[in-house]
Amino acid sequence: MTIPLFRATVLVRPKAGILDPQGAAVESALEHLGFSVSGARVGKVVDLEVQGDDEAAARAQVEKMCEQLLANPLMESYEVEIVG
Amino acid sequence: MASPQPRIGVITYPGSQDDRDALWALAALDAEAVPVWHEERELPDLDAVVLPGGFSYGDHLRCGAIARFSPATAAACELAADGGLVLGICNGFQILCEAGLLPGVLLRNESLRFVCRDVRLTVERDDLPFTARCAQGQSLVIPVKHGDGRWFAPEDAYEELAANGQIVLRYDEPCNGSAHDVAGVCNETGNVMGLMPHPEHAVDPLLGSDDGALLLASLVDAARARAAALA
Predict the structure, then answer these.
(1) Are strands B115-123 and B48-51 parallel, antiparallel or unpaired?
(2) How many CB atoms lie within 10 A of CB A79?
(3) Is A70 on the interface with B (CB under 8 A)?
(4) Cα-flanking dihedrals φ and ψ of residue B65, to 5°?
């Protein structure tokens, strides 16, 4: 019997209140292009595949990864999505 | 007879740039400077260890986030837990923050520009193994060269650190957007310190300033005292 494989997407965002100069630069560039934008923030996406007995087990694994490496809780929040 | 030279290691990570300058500076200040490869799990009988500037493992994800898990970093953490002296410079500071040995985190400079120039700093504490040769309030000129040097901690955490005396160095003028212009911090017990400026590049007046030697010579003194105490 093989252990099922789940595809996961992790969204890592700068926490609210943390100055995000990359977001500010992106916003300014968009304004130069003529877009009316505000509140641009730049984060990261990590796509990965993980083995788990079920979706909950896979999610628990990915959350552990976030806590240990993928996000720094001082400055980043994360969201885990199991996509199948 | 002079007491023997203390042994101070300098870790070389893949991407380290300032390891040789740190080795040179420590040797010039009368330490036995010992190169340590990042894969080494045991530190060979060291009194202190320096995590140098530059980069490490590509600094993928976040600066220092991968180096934090290297065998030599684990060994440095053990040395620190044992009361040994650990100094992180620039990328080394980032690694120590990621490893949880030092408070806060280092973010992209507010300007998004790499900053490379001499900066003036004020010494907030002169009773640490890294600052004993300085005087409180003393002004030092030491170069910085970094893109990710904006030190950050949540405001309540900062207040606690300031009250504990863990803020060691401050920029006299805003440098990179650091919270409260913090340039260097130490751990609660004062045996681990990190700073963004590069003392190892300021040990000879020919290079514009030798103020960095005050910090590194303090470290050499403290390492010598530790070696003598353990002998």
Answers:
(1) unpaired
(2) 12
(3) yes
(4) -65, -30
Structurally, chain A folds into a number of domains equal to: 1
Structural domain including A72 reads 5-82
Which residues make beta-bridge pairs with B7? B32
Supply the pTM of this predicted model: 0.95
Q: Give the pLDDT band of residue B70 (cuts 50, 70, 90).
A: very high
Please give the class, per CATH, of domain B7-230.
alpha beta
Structure ipTM: 0.89
A22/B112 touch (CB, cutoff 8 Å), yes or no: yes
Q: Which residues of A touch B150 (CB under 8 A)?
A: 19
Which residues 42-101 on chain B approach chain A with CB closer than 8 angstroms? 61-62, 65, 69, 98
- Minimal Cβ distance to A72: which of B62, B109, B111: B62
Query: What is the mean pLDDT, run by run of 10 residues, along chain A of 84 residues?
Result: 91 95 96 97 97 95 97 96 89
B63 near B51, Cβ under 8 Å? no
